[in-house]
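In this supplementary section we document a worked example of the pipeline. Step one takes a protein sequence of length 336 as its only input; no multiple sequence alignment statistics are reported here. Step two produces a three-dimensional model, which step three serialises into structure tokens for compact storage. The input and output of this example are shown verbatim.
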Amino acid sequence: MKRVHTVCDECMQSVDAQLEEFYTTHLLRGTEISIVETWPVCPQCGNKIGLGTYANENDKLLYEAYRKATHLPGGDEIRAMREKLGLSQKKLADLLGIGVASIQRYEGGSLPTEAHAAMIRQLNDPVFLRQRLQDTNFGSAKEHDALVASVEQTITREEEDASLSRIVFMMAQRTPDEYTGEKAFNAERFREVLVYFALNIRELYRTKLNKALFYLDFSAFRDLGHSITGLRYARADFGPVPDKYEQLIAAFTNEDAFYFEEQDTGGQILCTRKNEFGWWLFSPEEREQLSKVTEFVNRFSTATALSDASHKEPLWKQVEFGDLISYKGASTLKAL
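The serialised model returned by step three reads:
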């Protein structure tokens, strides 16, 4: 056990005190908080010695436990939110209508009051910021207008993200049927299909991607009895495409894992920042299907050539423009 040489504040003896742990419950702002404290214990009288270093460390533990229990924002979190908005401590204080000394204390580790904490939490809410900007004058007109523009841009982006998330959610709620390939849509599996294709298909333009998905799902239904992704497909001018394809791809390229890379010759190629495919989400037969379709797609020199092949598929020809394509026609696939 570690020991510390000090003077006991009870018996006033110079001692080598042993450090011991104590499970202690405190009442802080009306909330019971339990922590494990460390104190030096006097070997002469058994007193817990109130050494300043350990008192400070135990107080830090108590405040951090209270902060987590009550979801109060910490100093680093407050500083990060302020810097994200490009505000000084004084400007943030003006925006929230509180004293700058309070912001300085909170960023230094002091516990904010519940009222201040409630406002600070809402700094991540652009709607709250919009209202505060309407109600508060601070800084120069240029600074005020710049923050207003940033907040409005954030609101627009979050509304778009929410709309895309709803599309993915609604797709996952569909009951498996002949138009989903008797498979429920699963966002995680679809994400990994995109990873696999991005890692293994050359020049994965948008058109090539939607045709790769089509041949993957319909050949899997023909060979395995179910699709891989659970996507629905419809007839478009340039062959079969996943239903709500652009919104679906936008939802997934909003993630950190994917991005489109502009090409000098025009068009965009889907790329991934991941370097490993989540193979464990798929059966050996499904992984074989992914490999087979990738090899098939890479045989075409251009996306146009692959698209032309899909135009010859009977199941595409047999439906009207915009109508969903039934997987029951998968047995008629010609190109693969």
